[in-house]
Each structure stands twice: as structure tokens, then as C-alpha cells.
Write a structure and sequence with these properties.
Blueprint lengths: L2 E3 L8 E4 L2 E11 L7 E8 L5 E7 L3 E4 L2 E12 L2 E6 L5 E5 L15 E7 L2 E6 L3 E9 L12 E6 L4 E5 L7 E5 L4 E6 L1
Antiparallel strand pairs: 1-6, 2-3, 2-6, 3-4, 4-5, 7-8, 7-10, 8-9, 10-11, 12-13, 12-15, 13-14, 15-16
């Protein structure tokens, strides 16, 4: 199996430690006044979501994880299990809600997504960066309260709750950034 040397360490690298897949979320090169160069890394366990901090010496190696990404379409949700279908082979994958992190908040039927597979088993998905969703409920805006950027909570059609500007009304379509969980704009 392939390995990565410390010189190849970078954010986004997918490695395997003790048989579990990890993604490198931060890597800092540290050169102390005396001694060997160090690499301080933060790694997120792709199965459990926990974060691990490790320090590696120059010349250490980590095993590459057998992770690949494939295009899938979200089909439906049933009893907390989300069903996806691969576009090329029509193979179906199931993921529990807890493995989706916050991605479930943005899923609508027939929505294209990217799925992470570890040893051909699904471990997570990435929704599109921007989605258009309907505002199911939000408090009416108060007239005259425009001195500053006034915001209010809104519930979207998928059950997600985000903060929107005061002028957004129930029933409107809005664009949301799925990476930051933030309102972008109204959509006509």
C-alpha cells in the first residue's frame, strides 16, 4: 500500500492510522532551534468524527487510506437512513444521519452529491456548495427596524435552521452556502 512521507503532509490528505481512515485538517511545520524538524498535525477520524493531534518527526511515514470520491444522487430518507445512488453503476448506498454531520440539512430528492468511500463502504457525503431552499417559517420582519443589519432565524424546507436578513419572508426561495451554513441571497 502507498505511504506518505512527512514532506508530502498537507491539509486534506487522507491517511490510515491503526486501520481507521483520517483526513488531515491541519499540518504545521515546526523547526526548533535545536534538533529535528517536526510536523504538528490535526487529523479527523472519518468514521467517528473525533479529532486527533499528533506530532511526527522529519522522515516519518503514514499509510495512505483507500478513500475515493464518487458522484451520487440523493434519493430519499427513511427512518433516519439516507439512501443515495451512484450515477454510473446505479448502485445504492445507505448512510445514517449521524454519519452525515450537517449535510442532511441541505438534501432534497434528486440532489447531486459527492460520496466518500473507504474500502468501498460509504463514510460521508459532501452536498453542493450552494443550494436553493424554500423558507418554511420565519417571523415577520418589523418595519422601520433597518438602522443596522437586522437578522432573524428561519426554518427551511429540509428542517435546517439558519439566520437570514430581516426582509426574508416565509415562502421565499433563498440560496444557502452549505459549507458555512449562511444565507447568500434571495432567488426569484
Amino acid at each position: 500500500m502507498a505511504t506518505y512521507n512527512t514532506s508530502e503532509f498537507r491539509k486534506g490528505l487522507k491517511v490510515q492510522i491503526d486501520g481507521n481512515p483520517f483526513i488531515m485538517i491541519e499540518c504545521q511545520f515546526v523547526k526548533p532551534g535545536k534538533g529535528q524538524a517536526l510536523y504538528k498535525c490535526k487529523l479527523r477520524d472519518l468514521n467517528r468524527g473525533t479529532v486527533l493531534e499528533r506530532t511526527y518527526k522529519n522522515g516519518d511515514e503514514l499509510e495512505a487510506a483507500d478513500i475515493h470520491e464518487t458522484d451520487v444522487t440523493f434519493l430519499y430518507e427513511q427512518a433516519g437512513v439516507y439512501i443515495f445512488m451512484e450515477k454510473e453503476t446505479y448502485e445504492q448506498y445507505e448512510l445514517e444521519k449521524d454519519k452525515l454531520d450537517d449535510a442532511w440539512k441541505y438534501l432534497l430528492p434528486d440532489m447531486p452529491c459527492k460520496m466518500l468511500l473507504y474500502n468501498d463502504a460509504p463514510i460521508g457525503i459532501t452536498p453542493p456548495n450552494h443550494v436553493v431552499l424554500k423558507v418554511e417559517y420565519t417571523e415577520p420582519g418589523v418595519r422601520g427596524n433597518t438602522a443596522t443589519n437586522v437578522t432573524k432565524p428561519a426554518t427551511l424546507e429540509t428542517g435546517a435552521e439558519i439566520i437570514v436578513p430581516n426582509f426574508v419572508e416565509t415562502g421565499e426561495m433563498i440560496k444557502v452556502d452549505t459549507r458555512t451554513n449562511e444565507y447568500i441571497e434571495r432567488v426569484k
